[in-house]
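ugh ok so i messed up the first submission bc i forgot one of the chains. this is the corrected input, ALL of the components this time, i swear. 472 residues overall. if the numbers dont match what u have on ur side tell me asap before i send this to the collaborators (the ones from the other lab, u know who)
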Amino acid sequence: MRKSDRLLLLYVVLSGLFLLSLADTTRSPPEGAERIDRTRRMVAELGLTDPALFTEARYTRHLSQADLHSAFQDHPMALEHFPSGSLLVPPQRSQP
Amino acid sequence: MEWIRRQRYLIDFILSSLLRRKGKNFGLLLVYTLVVFMLASVMLFTHALKREVGNVLQASPEIILQRTEAGRHALIPADYLEKIGRLRGVTGRKGRLWGYFYDATVKANYTLMVADERELADTEVIVGSAIARARGVGPGDYLTFRSHDGIAYSFMIRELLDSDTELFSADLVLMSERAFRVSQGVTGGGYTDIVLSVSNPRELSKIAEKLTQRLPDTRPILKQEILRTYDAIFSWRQGILFVLLAGAIMAFVIFAWDKASGLSAEEKREIGILKAIGWETGDVLQMKFWEGAILSVTAFFTGYLLAYLHVFYASASLFEPVLKGWAVLYPAFRLAPVVDGLQIATLFFFTVFPYVVATIIPIWQASVTDPDAVMR
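and heres the new structure output, hopefully the right one now
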């Protein structure tokens, strides 16, 4: 087999896998939809407001509930020192 | 047909030429693939997480009313439920009781919450799966919390929260109202905040305005604000992750530019020989175009596919340390696969196109010069 044919074959395989990945996103597995449904039911029941992604500090756990300057609330000179603080963007003010 | 035959010969020739400098070219391909992999992983992960969190948070309360005291969140007295009065559009109101508990044994923060709907006895709790993992406990076991006044209270774990909901429930401890008030010292009858249900979302801002007029020491938080907070956080263009990646991309750009523009003496000789045996400038350019295209397209596909597997089938495990920070409790979750076509196109354009261009320009410069001068 010529080298160019082998390359072509490689590209056929790679683009096939690429298309497969796109098809994978459109196929919504019933267990995935059910999982989101269950989570939504629990969120509605308990009135949850935030995902449990950043559990390291009080003010990073419930970002949507924290004060706007919560990173500095412990005392006026306190510096933000939790790693997740560096992932956050400044709060977006609500539009009037 | 003739054109295709010609291109195939060219590709054969390039592949042989690439394989002659195996180490260097595979090294380049590897670094290139890694850069695409990292970029695509960040992109897929943040997009899927944003979609999932946004989707679930649609079920969160429409309005949360917090009381502030000296600018800080304070408990809201129970009579505020009455003080709110009748508000058109509000279909339900309820005081929420929740707080945090720092467990010194595993150095983790828990979120304690009262869940009346679960009808828990005062000595029972329901805990999230991440707590069960961290403490090595299960249903029927006991958890002991040191209360505000130093007394230790033991609670029996009635059940664990569904592990499928871990993204939202990893660190939750649900308990009865009495257990919460006694153990946390919230005895005055106040609540942590008040949630209001509103049936028509268009009335939300008007209701929020009325609330701040009637209760000036409160701050209403609307559902849109919660959604906007998370939308901003997960925006992939922002945040330190992207800044860190920018450094890696710059390093790659320098590497690729150096490889592509600084033609080695051997490559210059090769071009000289090709021209001497009758190749035209156009042929040399075509050949080098194919070289750049083969490397970048292979790196793009491989990097993207690996990123897809990493994010959706390996739970984005490389990002865990970044998101986890110093937290002990971290939810184990799998995201539903979702891909944004525009993002893929952007990624393709920014990774493949610059490399191909960077390869072509120096080759053009070399190939228009006299073969004799290049070979010398």
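quick check: The mean pLDDT of chain B is 85. that seems consistent at least. Chain B touches chain A through 83 residues (CB under 8 Å).
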